[in-house]
Fold each of these.
Amino acid sequence: MILWYSGCGNSRFVADTLSKELADSNMIFIPDAARQGMALEFGPDESLGIVFPVYSWSVPKLVSEFLRTAGFKGKPAYIFAACTCGDETGLTEKHLKKDLSKQGLELDAFFSFQMPETYINLPGFKLDTPENARRKTESTKASLKDAVVLIKERAKGGFNKLKGGSSFLKSNILKPLFYGLLITDRKFRVSDDCIGCGICAKNCPLRNITIENDRPKWNGHCTNCMSCYHRCPRNAINFGSATQGKGQYYFKQEE
Ligand SMILES: Cc1cc2nc3c(=O)[nH]c(=O)nc-3n(C[C@H](O)[C@H](O)[C@H](O)COP(=O)(O)O)c2cc1C
Ligand code: SF4
Ligand code: SF4
């Protein structure tokens, strides 16, 4: 089983690749499973993969909450995690282990992959240049091959090379501030360039957008994944003035 969450497609690409290479087609989208209150059932010798983007040098809150509260029927024989990040993971591995321990589960292996940046909601935060984005994606494609070999062997260990510095400060002190002060949908605005196509609503992982009078309306359950902003074909969405002129990115399958 592969549990996955992705806003802008980077982690979805990693989850899809692992699903294909590990011949495990049982992929479960975490926001759907959370909405349905789905229990996770494991057959004998079945493994569990958990794939997600790093948010504020940690596990996204919605992933943490799901892992801590989901019903487990049976115990996975091997648990691995694969996260994607723009730069660094901080203490993501440690935080994930804590989430799993609430269910009496232990993480066997942790992998991290750099992918193009998606968070641009603060001054100074910007997208990667196209060259940098390509370099990160190509490097991840290569590293995924090594990860697949290790996962098939059911290797144990932290294979995270992206922890970075000052991780206690970032993951334990800045993270609560980030969630408390910055994660909101109240700053989203849509311009007259909007054509009411509904792509933003269709691709919101949290189903937080409704289309009313041919315009998106944000409904207060946002995790700032930025999918709506990045995927709008008219670039009609902005997050206050912070995103203006910063461009768009989401993972496209043909890359
Ligand atoms: C809300 C938010 C917070 C993020 N925080 C971090 C971070 O702490 N460290 C980092 O390296 N990248 C961070 N990123 C970048 C993403 O982890 C990275 O671009 C990831 O590949 C996005 O995956 P997705 O396309 O599956 O959503 C953040 C992105 C978002 C949207
Ligand atoms: S994706 Fe863009 S153009 Fe389409 S409805 Fe949303 S804001 Fe409007
Ligand atoms: S409203 Fe936009 S930023 Fe918020 S969760 Fe949905 S797609 Fe992501």
Amino acid sequence: MARVKLQRFKDNASRPDIIEPGKPQYEQLGGRWRSEFFIQPFPLTLEVGCGKGEYTVGLAQRHPTRNFLGLDIKGERIWRGSSRAAELGLRNVGFVRMRAEALAAQFGAGELAEIWITFPDPRPRDRDIKRRLTSPRFLALYEQLLTPGGMLHLKTDNEGLFDFTLDTLAARPGAVIERYTRDLYSEVDAEFAEAQAIQTNFEGKYRSIGVPIKYVRFRLT
Ligand SMILES: C[S@@+](CC[C@H](N)C(=O)[O-])C[C@H]1O[C@@H](n2cnc3c(N)ncnc32)[C@H](O)[C@@H]1O
């Protein structure tokens, strides 16, 4: 493994804002993130598949009286988000290294106020439908962890994943699509302001080659 990557993994092991397997807190925070991990017990927003954490950090800057947690399986990516949060002096941000599949083991029922899913891997093969982060099994997980009526947001460049998500929501009793667009940056509606305000690493790459960004905001209950 490259030296830089190894050093970043070492850094992650000693950073209090990063929770990962092997740290005692990893087993202990479920149901207690707001009171025991964050300085203030503000409502908690989770970014699933946060990569380098642009959304987690950007939202934390915009909303100092809320807490934000970025989740990703890649340690080197969350190192970047954690470094940026430190540079900015943010105290309402954390990162957790884990698979989204294990969410129910790490969070308590109703513990999340909001979820952002930013540019998830589209998983186009039929046999990978279950692994899409907006598949019925993930929606069931999110519903369990959100406060009733908690909001979810998806941003993606991928038409197939976007259509799949809208179809999955249409087929799900109780799911309510609040707003959606197939070309986020052509919208002038203030309803889309938060989704337009922050750009992720992958988003920047797709926008630079002219791919329209798709966005949907929805609730599950
Ligand atoms: C296409 S990247 C997008 C990263 C970032 N959100 C962005 O927009 O730049 C997808 C991210 O999701 C993470 N990821 C994919 N499947 C995951 C899973 N099952 N659990 C946790 N993270 C996952 C990957 O490691 C990767 O960082």
